[in-house]
Amino acid sequence: MKVAIITDQHFGARKNSKLFHDYFLKFYNDIFFPTIEKEGITTVVDMGDTFDSRKGIDFSALSWAKNNYYDRLQEMGVKVHTIVGNHTAYYKNTNEVNAVDLLLREYDNVTIYSEPTEVVLGKLPTLFIPWINQENEKNTFKLIENTSCKCAMGHLELQGFRVNSQIIMEHGLESKLFEKFTRVYSGHYHTRSTNGTVYYLGNPYEMFWNDVKDSRGFHIFDTETLEHTPINNPYRMFYNIYYEDTNYQTFDTREYENKIVKVIVRKKTDIKKFEKFIDKLYSSGIAELKIVENFQIQESEDFEAFESEDTLSILNRYIEEAEINLDKSIIQKMIYEIYQEACEIV
What pLDDT, on the 0 to 100 scale, is given for residue 309? Predict the structure, then answer.
């Protein structure tokens, strides 16, 4: 049996941005739904963080999610297993109050898992593991120890895996707790990474600058072979353009419509031509434009990495270089948590 695994969809992201929801919808219309129809898939596993804000939901975001995702899955007769993630649990110490349970009760094809549960996918016993917190930690570890399931799927915070393309998580649970399983699949981190047993599958689309050029999409999982196949999302939201006296007349701007663009200036000898280059970008219908100029370091080997860094990477680099007698990894974790909460309201 083949099932679709998707995670960290974050409906309502970026303060229910229409720009981002239109971008999400292109993925669902062109990639996700056509693929599951073609493959004859009747089961979807959602590994958490279905909605973006754990504190509330914008009504238009909820309407969007129902009209464009849940209604369609229901009409197709697709069963959805939804695991509670940290973004959908209202409290940090319990999963009892959660968005997916409260918002999706009208769908008889959607099952919510707020506690660790053994579920059979096809003929494969699988352990679903929602966000681990103070209330369910003891029961979760006990079930992990006693289960005979070969496969686990959940929303885990494990150390040693990539949070994004620049940062590796140094806190969280040790992956050896899950070494009894043949396969472990998890949401939570938006970047794909693996240690050979545990697989972080990543989220379906770019949401922040640190996602630029990072492979995104969903996966098809075979319950008999325990193999998974990535179905990549070809659509991007964020683009870096490196300007080096680039000829505006021959520069193709068509792919930047409704995109977020950063122009990194490496060489600019003619201001008028540069302005015409920028005007051409604006006329293409870009959603947002940022221009970065720093000629003092344009010949540096580190120029590209420095200028294209996202906010979280810059903060972590600053902490790493600071001369302080504190555990820097703890400070970085605190900054990461604050940054994630800030993203929920920005």
Answer: 55
By CB atoms closer than 10 A (0-12, 13-18, 19+), residue 252 is exposed
Global pTM value: 0.87
CB-CB contact of 218 with 243 (8 Å): no
Pairwise CA distance, residues 7 & 153, whole Å: 11
Contacts of 75 by beta carbon, 8 Å cutoff, 6+ apart: none
Q: What is the DSSP letter of 84?
A: -
Q: What percent of the chain has pLDDT over 70?
A: 91
| Token digits of residue 99 | 């968005």
For residue 74, report the phi and psi dihedrals to the nearest 5 degrees.
-65, -45
The pairing of beta strand 217-222 with beta strand 228-232: antiparallel
Rg (CA), the chain: 22
- DSSP H helices, the chain, are 13-16, 18-27, 33-39, 59-65, 71-75, 99-103, 137-146, 271-283, 303-307, 311-321, 328-345
Token pair 């325990």 is found at 226
By the 10 Å C-beta count (0-12 exposed, 13-18 middle, 19+ buried), 220 is classed as middle
Residues 6+ apart with CB under 8 A from 21: 61, 64
pLDDT tens profile 180-210: 999 999 999 999 999 999 999 999 999 999 8
What is the Cα–Cα distance from 222 to 124, expressed in whole angstroms? Answer: 10
Position 249 scores a pLDDT of: 95
Domains in the chain, CATH or no CATH each: 2-232 (3.60.21.10), 246-345 (no CATH)
Q: How far is CA 225 from the centre of its chain?
A: 26
Contact 337, 169 (CB under 8 A): no
Alpha carbons 135 and 138: distance in angstroms, whole number: 8
> Nearest CA to 151 among 233, 222, 251?
222
The Cα-based distances of 145 to 141, 151, 160, 183, 195 in angstroms read 6, 13, 21, 15, 20
Q: Tell me: the pLDDT tens digits for 293-318?
A: 865 544 444 444 444 456 766 777 67
